[in-house]
Amino acid sequence: MNKPSPAIVAQGAVRRLPRLALLLFCIAYAVPGLVGRAPWKSADMASFGYMLEMARGNTPWMDPMLVGLRPEADGLLPYWLGALAIQGLGSWLAPATAARMPFFALMALAMAASWYAVYFLARQPRAQPVAFAFGGEAQPSDYARAIADGGLLALIACLGLAQLGHEITTSLAQLCFTALAFYGVAAQGHRRWLPEVAILVGLCGLALSGAPSLAVLFGLGSALLHALAGSDEGSDGRRRAVGAMVIATLAAIALASALDLWRWRVLLPQDAGSKDWRTLSRLLVWFTWPAWPLVLWTLWRWRFQIFTRSVNLHLALPLWFVLVTLTATLTTRPADRALLLALPALATLAAFALPTLQRSVAALIDWFTLLFFTSCGAVIWVVWIAMQTGFPKQPAANVLRQAPGFDAVFSLPVFLVALAATLVWAWLVQWRVGRHRAAIWKSMVLPAGGAALCWLLLMTLWMPLLDFVRGYTVVVRNVSAAVGTPDCIQEMGLSREQIAAFQYHGGFKILSNPHQARCPWLLVNPDPRLGLPEQVNKNQWQLQATIRRPSDKGDDVVLFRRTKT
User: Fold this and answer.
1) What string of DSSP letters covers 206-274?
2) Degrees, nearest 5: CA angle 276-279-285
């Protein structure tokens, strides 16, 4: 016997969040960090380096290389997108900005697909609220729209989305295609053709972005869940839905096999001890905040709907996506980039907690969010004021110690944008604590608004500082001052991101093979534990300088000049 739905929602509680406000909110979150900054350390800089090499025709598109090094992150499609954007937009945009344009589209598509996935799952008959004896319960479409609004706000509120969702890496591409596949399996039975196209594009896109195993698990698992779904959940189109998922999965398998994209990334059991489980626990807590407490609440309040004779798709599908990505998080590296793919499904489960929240729980979420994000915003403002004026003295001293040589510059447009965002946050807080009609998405307004506020403040007030400490312009500038404009520079031990930075910011021709050319200069990235490599011949190379990166001693480079020809 099926238990009644735990959602008791009146029509007045599903009023619509204005579409223009939601659209502007998404733009205000997605744009900062994707434009107006230099490529940052690690994967962001390295990915851009491969895109630039492909766009310039210096490496094959089917096997991209950067000075003889293949990408650490598997997948070809993200590099293709960035390279095509550089070729198409590079005449009127800086290459770094042009490369980000398709990734802005991927971020927007991930948000849209997540909203529609939640919407169609909330349209499932068993996801609907309890019918009142005398009417007045929420109408199905209005209820689904309100749940979808809450789901999208929950996605934006997740702290882990901020940085990884604004980098031009395979991770953002995988997030987008995961959301597309999730939408496709959620919308089966509600739309014709578009869900099938979304599944095909999502699973094949995942394969091309370096995650073919996840594509197979998502596709086959979703097909099985649809096959086991109850008769009231689109039984007429179940065979077609299952067939579409199986065909899309086979297409992803064929594509990955043809392009040799299969890689073994799973840690074997004997290697599991090498993982820091405490670090993983902390990652799970902060990366998925504030979705995970709401997910636990959903699992508790909807527990009688989970364990039934037939599958309830509005719970089973997001649970499957979460379980697959959590398994990948625990068994692959880097863990945070695997966990990123769980956010659309986690936000979906969090959204189904909203119609069951007690008033005291909703108030606790609001007050905690208000205190947390207001404090974070205040810290960002205080440190910015200290950078501009030297007062308060302690924050100013901390900035000088962490970023020696940084010189803050005042920008009126940046200040006005940050001030406007802060005033909007104040208005949002006033609206939330004021007297207004209830809406089931209201508990997600402050978490999403606070996350967007702090990210926007960081990407405006702190952008020069972050570019200084996370970019490579300072190191490249110092090397350029020492070497001038040589024909080439030989490298030894440089990371992919360092090579990309020297080629982009400095315009240097970096070579790793000493037999290709006899370069007058040598750049070495020494191992902090072992020092300089033995291959550095002291009779052939003379030490010129050690170029230090202001915020990371592990990124120091040692410059040598050739003494023997």
Assistant:
1) HHHTT-HHHHHHHHHHHHHHHHTB-TTTTGGGHHHHHHHHHHHHHHHHHHHHHTT-----PPPGGGGGG
2) 145
Residues in the chain: 565
Q: How far is Cα 561 from Cα 170, in angstroms, rounded to an integer?
A: 37
Q: Where are the alpha helices (DSSP H) in 459-533?
A: 463-470, 473-483, 496-505
pTM above 0.85, yes or no: yes
HEC string of 330-387?
Answer: HHCCCHHHHHHHHHHHHHHHHHCCHHHCCHHHHHHHHHHHHHHHHHHHHHHHHHHHHH
Is residue 115 a contact partner of residue 153, using CB atoms and an 8 Å limit? no
CA–CA separation, 245 and 219 (whole Å): 6
Give the pLDDT band (50/70/90) at residue 553: low
Distance, in Å, from the CA atom of 108 to the CA atom of 467, rounded to the nearest integer, reads 24
What distance in Å separates the CA atoms of residue 123 and residue 153, rounded to the nearest whole number?
19
Cis omega (within 30 of 0) on the bond before 78?
no
Residue 99, helix vs strand vs coil: helix
At 513, the amino acid letter reads: N
According to DSSP, residue 128 is labeled: S
Which amino acid does the sequence have at 148?
A
Beta bridge mates, 66: 69
**Strand order across the beta sheet in which 489-492 lies:** 510-511, 489-492, 521-524, 557-562, 541-547
- Pull the structure tokens for residue 30: 């997605």
Confidence band (pLDDT; 50, 70, 90) for 233?
very low
Q: Encoding tokens for residue 87?
A: 């070729």
Encoded tokens for 130: 């309890």
Cis peptide before 71 (omega within 30 of 0): no
Residue in this structure with the two tokens 């604590």, named with its chain if needed: 433
- For the chain, how big is the Rg over CA atoms in Å? 26
Burial 29-53 (b: 16+ CB within 10 A, else e): bbbbbbbebbbbbbbbbbbbbbbbb
The answer to whether the beta carbons of residues 136 and 119 sit under 8 Å apart is no
Residue ranges of domains in the chain = 11-21+102-129+136-356, 359-470, 473-562
Which residue carries 């910011």 as its tokens? 505
Angle separating helix axes 194-208 and 238-258, nearest 10 degrees:
20
Structure tokens at 343: 């956010």
- Interacting residues of 440 by C-beta distance below 8 A, sequence separation 6+: 9, 13, 14, 146, 147, 150, 354, 355
As given in the structure block, the two tokens for residue 407 are: 């010189």
The answer to whether the beta carbons of residues 211 and 174 sit under 8 Å apart is: yes
Q: How many CB atoms lie within 10 A of CB 515?
A: 6
Q: How confident is the model at residue 1 (pLDDT cuts 50, 70, 90)?
A: very low
Q: What is the pLDDT of residue 56?
A: 95
